[in-house]
Each structure stands twice: as C-alpha cells, then as structure tokens.
Amino acid sequence: MADGKIGIFVATMTGLAEMCAEEVEGALAGAGLECERRLMDGLDSAALAPYETFIIISSTYGHGDIPDNGQAFFESLSAGADLTGKRYAVFALGDRTYADTFCAAGDKWDQAISANGATRFVDLKRHDASAGTLAEDIAGEWAAGWAKCL
Hints:
The chain has 150 residues and is of the alpha/beta class. It has one domain: 3-Layer(aba) Sandwich (Rossmann fold). 32% of the residues lie in helices and 21% in strands. The chain contains four helices and six strands, in the order βαββαβαββα. Helix 1 runs parallel beside helix 4.
C-alpha cells in the first residue's frame, strides 16, 4: 500500500459522493487505518497502483453514467489494468425512482475492477436517495461495519 494507506477514490457531480468519502475516511481512521482520499479529476487507473486496498465512491447521473470527473479514470480502467492481488469496495449512490439505472455507475465500477483481477472484500453498497436517509451517514456506518476487519 501507499505507506500503508487505503485509497479512497471519488467520482461525483454534486459533491455528495465526496461527503460520503469524508465519512468513510472518518470511520476508517476511527479503526486506526490510514487513508488517502482523492477526487478522480485528472486520474487514470495508474492511480490505484500504490494501494493494496482501495474504495470507490461514486454517484450515478444521467442514464446510469459515471460522473464527469471519473470518466477518464473509468475509461483507463476499462482499457485494462493489472489489479491482481488488490482488494476493493464500492459505495454507489443512486435513486430508485430511476429503476433502470439505479446505482448503475457503481455497478460499472464493480464490474470493471473485478474484470481486472481485484477482489471485492465487502458487498457493493447502494444508497437510495429516495429512501429518506442521508447518504453520508449510511456511508460512514457501512465503513465502520467492516473497517476493523482490515
């Protein structure tokens, strides 16, 4: 890992995924783990190289699309990257009102990362904006639930 740190990578349009990443980072820090949180702006799949464990936090927008700031990263990942031996988790944001594309960006991240050889260490977590819960609270609770296992 990058000096023993866990990478937290954020794809967001409105900043909500970044708020979720802050809560995940806080939960991991509370478990004694070091993290490095990065927006995906200007990054490609090479940004994953220093991390043995990483987390993708991504909203979904449009018709199940990856947020603008994560598209180059996603395209680079989809073109192929050796992620063998790496562990990952995905926190996806969406809205069940759009049933056909609910958390589709998170599903795309999960599939692309898995196809490149990484192993998901916890089930993909989907947050529903229409559920009446705060995404950042759910993200923090989700991370706190598995952080001590790392």
